[in-house]
Amino acid sequence: MPEKKRVAVYDLASRKSKTVGVIVPKLDSHFITTALKGIQEITTESGYDIIITHSQENMEKEAANVRLLSDRSVDGVLASLSVETKGTAHFSPLTDKGTPVVFFDRVEDACSSGTVVIDNARCGYLATEHLIRQGCRRIAIITSDLKRDVYKQRYKGFREALDSYGIAFSQELLLLPEGDSDTGTDAAQKVLHMKPLPDGLFITNDLTAAICMHTLNEAGIRVPEDIAIVGFNNDPVGRLITPALTTIDYPGFEIGKTAASTLLAHLSGRKTVTERTTAIVPSSLIIRNSSLRSQAS
Protein backbone atom coordinates (compact mmCIF):
# COMPACT_ATOMS: atom_id res chain seq x y z
CA MET A 1 0.00 0.00 0.00
CA PRO A 2 1.24 3.52 -0.73
CA GLU A 3 2.55 5.44 2.27
CA LYS A 4 -0.10 7.69 3.80
CA LYS A 5 0.85 11.35 3.45
CA ARG A 6 1.07 13.34 6.67
CA VAL A 7 -1.01 16.47 6.83
CA ALA A 8 -0.25 19.20 9.37
CA VAL A 9 -3.41 19.81 11.42
CA TYR A 10 -3.96 22.72 13.77
CA ASP A 11 -4.53 21.45 17.32
CA LEU A 12 -7.48 23.47 18.64
CA ALA A 13 -6.99 22.28 22.19
CA SER A 14 -3.34 23.34 22.49
CA ARG A 15 -3.52 26.09 19.85
CA LYS A 16 -0.50 24.55 18.14
CA SER A 17 0.03 23.84 14.45
CA LYS A 18 2.68 21.17 15.19
CA THR A 19 4.77 22.87 12.51
CA VAL A 20 8.26 24.39 12.70
CA GLY A 21 9.50 26.91 10.15
CA VAL A 22 13.09 26.85 8.91
CA ILE A 23 14.89 29.75 7.18
CA VAL A 24 18.24 29.06 5.51
CA PRO A 25 20.37 31.29 3.26
CA LYS A 26 20.68 28.74 0.44
CA LEU A 27 19.94 25.11 -0.36
CA ASP A 28 22.98 24.14 -2.51
CA SER A 29 25.28 23.68 0.47
CA HIS A 30 26.59 20.51 2.09
CA PHE A 31 26.38 22.14 5.50
CA ILE A 32 22.76 23.26 5.03
CA THR A 33 21.75 19.85 3.65
CA THR A 34 23.19 18.04 6.67
CA ALA A 35 21.77 20.61 9.11
CA LEU A 36 18.30 20.11 7.60
CA LYS A 37 18.66 16.34 8.05
CA GLY A 38 19.46 16.89 11.72
CA ILE A 39 16.48 19.23 12.12
CA GLN A 40 14.15 16.79 10.41
CA GLU A 41 15.28 13.86 12.56
CA ILE A 42 14.40 15.70 15.77
CA THR A 43 11.17 17.30 14.57
CA THR A 44 9.87 14.04 13.11
CA GLU A 45 10.54 12.19 16.37
CA SER A 46 8.46 14.82 18.19
CA GLY A 47 5.58 14.77 15.69
CA TYR A 48 6.31 18.13 14.04
CA ASP A 49 6.28 18.95 10.35
CA ILE A 50 8.71 21.51 8.94
CA ILE A 51 8.33 24.26 6.37
CA ILE A 52 11.66 25.08 4.70
CA THR A 53 12.25 28.51 3.17
CA HIS A 54 15.44 30.07 1.84
CA SER A 55 16.53 33.68 1.52
CA GLN A 56 18.96 33.30 -1.42
CA GLU A 57 21.43 35.34 0.68
CA ASN A 58 19.06 38.34 0.56
CA MET A 59 17.77 40.16 3.64
CA GLU A 60 14.52 41.30 1.98
CA LYS A 61 13.69 37.72 0.99
CA GLU A 62 14.58 36.62 4.50
CA ALA A 63 12.06 39.14 5.87
CA ALA A 64 9.48 37.80 3.41
CA ASN A 65 10.18 34.28 4.70
CA VAL A 66 9.54 35.53 8.24
CA ARG A 67 6.17 37.02 7.24
CA LEU A 68 5.21 33.83 5.41
CA LEU A 69 5.97 31.64 8.42
CA SER A 70 4.17 34.07 10.71
CA ASP A 71 1.09 33.91 8.47
CA ARG A 72 1.26 30.11 8.58
CA SER A 73 1.17 30.28 12.41
CA VAL A 74 4.17 28.01 12.90
CA ASP A 75 4.93 27.10 16.50
CA GLY A 76 8.58 28.12 16.25
CA VAL A 77 11.32 29.00 13.78
CA LEU A 78 14.91 27.90 13.20
CA ALA A 79 16.92 30.46 11.22
CA SER A 80 20.37 30.83 9.69
CA LEU A 81 20.90 34.39 8.51
CA SER A 82 21.75 35.59 5.01
CA VAL A 83 25.13 37.15 4.30
CA GLU A 84 23.36 40.52 3.79
CA THR A 85 21.42 40.50 7.05
CA LYS A 86 21.96 43.28 9.57
CA GLY A 87 20.18 42.89 12.88
CA THR A 88 17.13 40.78 13.62
CA ALA A 89 14.39 43.42 13.84
CA HIS A 90 12.71 41.93 10.76
CA PHE A 91 11.88 38.84 12.84
CA SER A 92 9.38 40.94 14.83
CA PRO A 93 6.29 39.46 13.04
CA LEU A 94 7.22 36.26 14.90
CA THR A 95 8.71 37.53 18.15
CA ASP A 96 6.01 40.15 18.74
CA LYS A 97 3.41 37.42 19.05
CA GLY A 98 5.60 35.18 21.15
CA THR A 99 6.75 32.71 18.50
CA PRO A 100 10.20 31.49 19.62
CA VAL A 101 13.13 31.74 17.21
CA VAL A 102 16.40 29.84 17.53
CA PHE A 103 19.26 31.02 15.31
CA PHE A 104 21.91 28.55 14.17
CA ASP A 105 25.23 28.76 12.32
CA ARG A 106 24.98 32.33 11.03
CA VAL A 107 23.86 34.49 13.93
CA GLU A 108 24.09 38.11 15.03
CA ASP A 109 26.29 39.22 17.94
CA ALA A 110 23.17 40.34 19.81
CA CYS A 111 20.47 37.94 18.65
CA SER A 112 17.18 38.42 20.47
CA SER A 113 16.84 34.67 21.02
CA GLY A 114 18.82 31.48 21.51
CA THR A 115 21.72 30.52 19.26
CA VAL A 116 23.48 27.31 18.22
CA VAL A 117 26.99 27.69 16.82
CA ILE A 118 30.47 26.26 16.74
CA ASP A 119 33.38 28.18 18.26
CA ASN A 120 34.42 29.83 14.99
CA ALA A 121 37.19 31.88 16.60
CA ARG A 122 38.77 28.79 18.14
CA CYS A 123 38.48 26.92 14.83
CA GLY A 124 40.13 29.81 12.99
CA TYR A 125 42.92 29.69 15.53
CA LEU A 126 43.39 25.92 15.16
CA ALA A 127 43.55 26.13 11.36
CA THR A 128 46.12 28.93 11.42
CA GLU A 129 48.19 27.39 14.20
CA HIS A 130 48.42 24.18 12.18
CA LEU A 131 49.83 26.09 9.21
CA ILE A 132 52.33 27.84 11.49
CA ARG A 133 53.46 24.52 12.93
CA GLN A 134 54.03 23.30 9.36
CA GLY A 135 56.53 26.10 8.94
CA CYS A 136 54.32 28.70 7.23
CA ARG A 137 55.20 32.31 8.01
CA ARG A 138 53.43 34.30 5.31
CA ILE A 139 49.83 33.16 5.68
CA ALA A 140 46.92 34.64 3.76
CA ILE A 141 43.24 34.21 4.61
CA ILE A 142 40.55 33.91 1.93
CA THR A 143 37.15 34.53 3.46
CA SER A 144 33.74 36.14 3.01
CA ASP A 145 32.07 39.33 4.25
CA LEU A 146 33.45 40.09 7.72
CA LYS A 147 30.15 41.73 8.67
CA ARG A 148 28.72 38.22 9.00
CA ASP A 149 29.55 36.89 12.47
CA VAL A 150 30.83 33.44 11.42
CA TYR A 151 33.46 34.92 9.10
CA LYS A 152 34.35 37.70 11.52
CA GLN A 153 35.02 35.13 14.23
CA ARG A 154 37.12 32.90 11.95
CA TYR A 155 39.18 35.95 11.00
CA LYS A 156 39.53 36.84 14.68
CA GLY A 157 40.94 33.39 15.43
CA PHE A 158 43.30 33.67 12.44
CA ARG A 159 44.71 36.98 13.70
CA GLU A 160 44.99 35.71 17.28
CA ALA A 161 47.05 32.71 16.14
CA LEU A 162 49.43 34.95 14.20
CA ASP A 163 49.81 37.24 17.21
CA SER A 164 50.41 34.28 19.55
CA TYR A 165 53.33 33.12 17.41
CA GLY A 166 54.70 36.61 16.72
CA ILE A 167 54.00 36.46 12.99
CA ALA A 168 53.45 39.74 11.17
CA PHE A 169 50.28 40.39 9.18
CA SER A 170 49.69 42.87 6.37
CA GLN A 171 46.34 43.86 4.91
CA GLU A 172 47.21 42.43 1.49
CA LEU A 173 46.99 38.96 3.07
CA LEU A 174 43.24 39.42 3.70
CA LEU A 175 41.39 38.39 0.53
CA LEU A 176 37.64 38.96 0.27
CA PRO A 177 36.62 37.71 -3.19
CA GLU A 178 33.07 38.49 -4.29
CA GLY A 179 30.48 36.16 -5.81
CA ASP A 180 30.06 32.40 -5.52
CA SER A 181 30.87 30.36 -8.63
CA ASP A 182 34.21 32.01 -9.48
CA THR A 183 35.32 32.82 -5.91
CA GLY A 184 38.05 30.16 -5.81
CA THR A 185 39.43 31.11 -9.22
CA ASP A 186 39.45 34.82 -8.41
CA ALA A 187 41.14 34.17 -5.08
CA ALA A 188 43.84 32.04 -6.74
CA GLN A 189 44.56 34.75 -9.29
CA LYS A 190 45.01 37.28 -6.48
CA VAL A 191 47.35 34.90 -4.69
CA LEU A 192 49.42 34.39 -7.86
CA HIS A 193 49.92 38.16 -8.17
CA MET A 194 51.32 38.47 -4.63
CA LYS A 195 55.01 39.21 -4.29
CA PRO A 196 56.27 37.22 -2.53
CA LEU A 197 53.75 34.39 -2.67
CA PRO A 198 52.18 33.32 0.62
CA ASP A 199 53.36 29.95 1.90
CA GLY A 200 50.07 29.16 3.62
CA LEU A 201 46.37 29.75 2.91
CA PHE A 202 43.49 29.53 5.34
CA ILE A 203 40.32 29.42 3.20
CA THR A 204 37.06 29.56 5.14
CA ASN A 205 35.04 27.47 2.66
CA ASP A 206 36.02 24.06 1.26
CA LEU A 207 34.52 24.52 -2.20
CA THR A 208 36.40 27.79 -2.60
CA ALA A 209 39.54 26.04 -1.33
CA ALA A 210 39.17 23.16 -3.82
CA ILE A 211 38.76 25.50 -6.80
CA CYS A 212 41.60 27.71 -5.59
CA MET A 213 43.90 24.69 -5.20
CA HIS A 214 43.03 23.44 -8.68
CA THR A 215 43.80 26.86 -10.20
CA LEU A 216 47.10 27.10 -8.32
CA ASN A 217 48.11 23.61 -9.49
CA GLU A 218 47.40 24.58 -13.10
CA ALA A 219 49.73 27.56 -12.61
CA GLY A 220 52.55 25.27 -11.44
CA ILE A 221 52.17 25.89 -7.70
CA ARG A 222 52.71 22.73 -5.65
CA VAL A 223 50.40 22.06 -2.71
CA PRO A 224 51.57 21.75 0.02
CA GLU A 225 55.27 22.16 -0.87
CA ASP A 226 54.93 25.74 -2.14
CA ILE A 227 51.65 26.71 -0.46
CA ALA A 228 49.98 24.73 2.31
CA ILE A 229 46.19 25.00 2.43
CA VAL A 230 43.56 24.54 5.15
CA GLY A 231 39.84 24.79 4.37
CA PHE A 232 36.69 24.91 6.46
CA ASN A 233 33.43 22.86 6.42
CA ASN A 234 34.56 19.24 5.87
CA ASP A 235 32.69 19.22 2.58
CA PRO A 236 32.92 15.91 0.65
CA VAL A 237 34.76 17.75 -2.16
CA GLY A 238 37.77 17.98 0.16
CA ARG A 239 38.26 14.22 0.06
CA LEU A 240 37.94 14.04 -3.74
CA ILE A 241 40.66 16.50 -4.70
CA THR A 242 44.41 15.83 -4.75
CA PRO A 243 45.98 16.36 -2.32
CA ALA A 244 43.06 15.79 0.06
CA LEU A 245 42.09 18.96 1.88
CA THR A 246 42.88 19.64 5.53
CA THR A 247 39.78 21.25 6.97
CA ILE A 248 37.72 22.18 10.00
CA ASP A 249 34.89 19.76 10.70
CA TYR A 250 31.58 21.62 10.51
CA PRO A 251 29.06 19.25 12.10
CA GLY A 252 25.89 20.37 10.32
CA PHE A 253 23.88 17.33 11.38
CA GLU A 254 24.67 17.91 15.06
CA ILE A 255 24.04 21.65 14.76
CA GLY A 256 20.66 20.97 13.17
CA LYS A 257 19.75 18.43 15.85
CA THR A 258 20.84 20.76 18.65
CA ALA A 259 18.93 23.73 17.22
CA ALA A 260 15.75 21.67 16.79
CA SER A 261 16.09 20.12 20.24
CA THR A 262 16.54 23.55 21.81
CA LEU A 263 13.44 24.90 20.10
CA LEU A 264 11.28 21.87 20.91
CA ALA A 265 12.42 21.91 24.54
CA HIS A 266 11.16 25.49 24.69
CA LEU A 267 7.85 24.60 23.03
CA SER A 268 7.30 21.78 25.51
CA GLY A 269 8.00 24.05 28.46
CA ARG A 270 11.17 22.20 29.45
CA LYS A 271 13.44 25.11 28.59
CA THR A 272 13.17 28.85 28.06
CA VAL A 273 14.94 30.29 25.02
CA THR A 274 16.47 33.70 25.72
CA GLU A 275 19.28 35.85 24.36
CA ARG A 276 21.54 34.18 26.98
CA THR A 277 20.89 30.67 25.61
CA THR A 278 23.89 29.73 23.48
CA ALA A 279 24.79 26.15 22.61
CA ILE A 280 28.31 25.54 21.25
CA VAL A 281 28.63 22.34 19.22
CA PRO A 282 32.14 20.79 19.31
CA SER A 283 34.27 20.97 16.17
CA SER A 284 37.82 19.97 15.31
CA LEU A 285 40.67 20.13 12.80
CA ILE A 286 40.87 17.26 10.28
CA ILE A 287 44.44 16.97 8.97
CA ARG A 288 44.99 15.71 5.42
CA ASN A 289 47.79 16.10 2.87
CA SER A 290 47.08 19.63 1.57
CA SER A 291 48.77 21.16 4.62
CA LEU A 292 51.49 18.66 5.54
CA ARG A 293 54.57 20.50 4.31
CA SER A 294 56.93 18.67 6.66
CA GLN A 295 55.71 15.30 5.39
CA ALA A 296 55.86 16.44 1.74
CA SER A 297 59.46 17.58 2.11
Can you summarize this structure?
This protein has helices spanning 30-45, 59-71, 92-95, 120-133, 149-164, 183-192, 206-218, 237-240, 252-267, 293-296; strands at residues 19-24, 49-54, 76-79, 101-104, 114-117, 139-142, 174-175, 200-203, 228-230, 247-248, 278-280, 285-286. The protein is an alpha/beta fold and 297 residues long. It is elongated, with a radius of gyration of 21 Å.
CATH topology category name of the largest domain: Rossmann fold
Please list the strands of the largest sheet in the order they lie side by side: 2-1-3-4-5-11
Rounded mean pLDDT is: 91
Tell me the β content. 5-15%
Distance linking N and C termini: 62 Å
Provide the gyration radius in Å: 21 Å
Structural class: alpha/beta
CATH class of the largest domain reads Alpha Beta
Principal-axis shape: elongated
Low-confidence stretches: 1-14
CATH superfamily of the largest domain: Response regulator
Number of domains: 2
What does this structure look like?
There is one protein chain. With 297 residues, this protein is α/β, with parallel strands linked by helices. The chain has 2 domains: 19-118 and 251-280, Rossmann fold, CATH 3.40.50.2300; 120-249, Rossmann fold. The protein contains 10 helices and 12 strands. α1 packs parallel to α9. The longest helix is centred in the first third of the chain and has 16 residues, at 30-45. The chain is elongated and about 60 Å long.
